[in-house]
Amino acid sequence: MNKIVLFVAVYFLSFYALGQSPKENSRRSSINLKYGAHRLGKREDLDMKRWRAYGFGQFIHWGLYAIPGGEWKGKEYNGAAEWIRSWEGMPKSDYDSLYLKFNPVNFSPDSWAKMARKMGARYITFTTKHHDGFCLWPSKFSDYTISKTPYQKDIVKAVVDAYTREGIDVILYFSVMDWHHPGWRYELKTTEDSVAFEGFKQFTRNQLLELLQNYPKIKGFWFDGTWDKSWVRQARFADELEKEMRKVHPGLIIGSRFRADENGARHFDSNGDLMGDYEQGWERVLPNKIEDVHGNDWDAIMTVPENQWGYNKFWKGHLKTAFELIEMTAKSVSLGGNFVLNFGPQADGTIRVEEQKLAGEIGEWMEQNKEAIYDCEYAGLEKQDWGYFTKKRGSEKIYMIVCNVPLSRNLRIKLPEGKGFKNVRLISRPGQLLNSEKLNAKEYFIQLPQMEVKSPIVVEMELISKQNEGSFEKAKI
Ligand code: FHN
Questions:
Q1: Fold topology of 379-471
Q2: Which enzyme type, at the first EC level (predicted)?
């Protein structure tokens, strides 16, 4: 008996000393990695808690690609507008001279930030440099920057300052892949390639440290363009650089797209552990169930058309409606993630009317219903066909974001053993309690009143332990 007690104590103490839970540790132990995940489980510091609570954010892709907007000399490019430089229909020299024409005289960072705040965004991810290598800040390490344009002014600074003033946190997007830098390679095949790429690595480090120094208010980096073989083989360099950035900017948030481990595994290391502070792979697609996110933090980024990030004058195919985007936001939060909606401003600095309209419609809904999105998490309740449950962190408050109102107006809910609920009401009519009906030991109907439904409606309630079930209201609307 004593031996068993001793064994159990040593077993658990060993994990405690390593700062890992038994489950996490057993996954970790399979392969010994030098450049794998730096941490197991979620970050629990204040910066990360703040990130986790955002719920909804804005992405902005802006750069030289906004000038052609998906078209060059009367010909239409069928890919994503920000990739037009890679198209044979546009000579590289034409693209590389666009900076001479970049002069966004109507750019008003305050209007952008105000629009984002009214839309309900709590953070922005902003492109400092996309794959074309053009820098929207006056980088000391490049000759291809905003200061060489007729506009000249530092756009990154203007965005960081304006959004911060509006209470919106800023994350900087940075593409490691850089088509402009002479040292960039997709693959390192020769010694000459490796030498050139060493120069590129130092350039990348310099630019990242420069961004941290210039814009100390930022909360994190959103990395992109990290999938090519050349970068995937830089496990040690990227690992050290990540540590260096975190050291100079404590609290910095970095997603899972920055680096690969020594075996080339990306996002998740060779042991299946997340590399970075949150999973950054949900691009234009959302998880469907809580198991899909493996207990990690995550965000999902979404375009309005199928796949256009930078400004595209044509915007073909299905354009997502405000209703669809609100539903995606609700779904993301219900599965413990943040939802981030992309905007592609025009070359003159204005935001297209379709995006302004969407922002207005989403904002109207957010104004009324933000309580069900901000600081909310996975509710632990079985999903129902009418929509999504969210739960206010650290409380028993549950929200039902109803995207499909049943013809019967009865919303089915299923609660865990021993749980009941009270104070059920529409967020939009806090003074009126809703009727409910018990179906069996765990299931209930919440009855919606007759009402016009133009966008998702939100019902709130408090979960209680079953012994208090007597306090169940059956009130008339
Ligand atoms: O190639 C880019 C694309 O242009 C866009 O920036 C998206 C946004 O996440 N990232 C890359 C594709 O994954």
A1: Immunoglobulin-like (2.60.40)
A2: hydrolase
